[in-house]
Input
Amino acid sequence: MPYKSLQHFIQLLESRGELIRVKEFVSPRLEITEIADRFVKNAGQALLFENNGTSFPLLILAFAGDTRIRLALGLNDLDDAGRTIDGMVKNLMGPKDHFLDKLRLLPALQDVASWLPKTISGRGPCQEVVMDPPDLGLLPVLTCWPHDGGPFITFPCVHTRNPENNTRNLGMYRMQVFGPALTGMHWHMHKGSAYHYELYKNAGKQMPVSVSLGGDPVYTYAATAPLPENIDEYLFAGFLRKKKVELVKCITNDLEVPADADFVIEGYIDPQEELITEGPFGDHTGFYSLEGMFPRFHVTCITHRKDAVYPATIVGIPPQEDAWIGKATERLFLTPIKLSVVPELDDMHMPPEGVFHNIVLASIHKHYPGQAIKVMSSLWGAGQMMFNKIMGVFDAGTLLTDYLQLARIISKNTHPVDDIHFIQGPVDILDHSSRRYGFGSKIGLDATLKTGEDKTDTTLRLNPYVEEKGLLSAIPALTSANIELIKEGISLVILAVNKSKPAEVREIAKQINETGLVRNVRFIVFADAFIDIQNLSTLSWIVANNLDPMRDCFYTEETPGNKYPVLFIDGTMKSYETDGFKRDWPNVIVMDEKTIESIDSRWNSLGLGNFIPSPSLQFKLLIISDGAVARAGKQDKQN
Output
């Protein structure tokens, strides 16, 4: 259903027991993050911080729960939208042999027309108050994590237009606040607004930009949705809310924004102007994204509703609020992917540990040999799926959320040499492990049943076995082993290693095969000695982040040209000394002790319910050094 305002949504959440009002003072600097992190990792409610040192309440975790994400999008079930799209397409594209068949199209066409955004005359509620002069310091902008470069606007809906064809783009890009009327604009090279920026730069023109915050929560989701460039995000929002979005013209530029937004920040970017150093920022990967150069956004006007609420989110070690946004995207876009890219697709799942792009699991209706490889190639070429690093493809009907069963299927169906596929391509610029900025590699695992020409060695040895004590004794660099998965019918061993010299992981892999202390195991994963290798969720998150597949997944040879049927996976952090890695390596994100202690001591007075300990406490051992950078790259060391 459409919401009249963000306040309307808040009232519904509160009536459903999905929201807590925090009336005592909590600072936007670190403290709100610390409380939100505790709540999101323990299935807590949304939080409305009414006393944060500004005139505006701050809402956080509004999407962070199965019930809240469905309420936000007006859906009884996240698959409902996909079923609607499927029905519409079949109705529109099916054969029309009779006049009555054509008449049946009219309601569907009317529905589409009713979702188109409409610009209304005059001012909207979002322009009830004009801030004079504009001052971002009057908003409760969060400083999320201890080593962030400053306060960041984290839920902005950024509006730009293509100067050549006037098409709109709505995106979500973090904005570091540098002053009352200046922010950075962290749009990635692959994004729509970054493309618009290049067009303005080539034309030598100033670029108008407007940012809205709040309003119907559907707008926030639409700004994150991976839509094709020719689909207006507000048409998609209209489809979800079953009512067109009403837009109003901004005061100081010609862009349009939702009339019912809570805040509108208008301004411009001068593409000829020098870029500004932005970051670090505790990012959705669970690691800091480090400093980079991005455009300067100059604020010319700030307007807001009289009853404005400032919406915010945090990202960091998963799960965070974005896990539920990603879940919605997974379900909403399954049908469009089937219709336009992969018709054989049965289901798809992105585990939170994969932080959206690192791990994708897909099941398919397989009809011919090599079809899984075709699906990998198709998905890697589909929009934002190009950022995926690890893809597993299974047969239709496989429950993609049962990770242990998936591992058993891989152990049975995936030959560690013949069914593993690598390619190079673009990766997310937040990927800290890629050899080059925004460019790396991907790995695909074909876990489908092989019965035809794609059937490989059926004599591959089973019954994996590890002589754990002998292995750890023979190879001193190994500090511990997790062989428990073998007991679950999973041909995977996890080894903790303390690296101290170049190419040591590959040397250890060679020793493992030569000693015979590990037998018939198909997959061996290496992790750093400071990682808890018994915690599979944390391990999966760390290894997926630390992996550049073509560099870090490898084999040893039994005889020249003859590979051992074992895939070794190096999930350790990389450095110049041990791996020749030239880029800076970031730290994981944890809260500082002072903030943790402050929230601990005030918990009962804040009315937050039963005490929840800080999640950061279990991750402190992952910190390598003080600051956002864990290990400096080659260039810094030479300087």
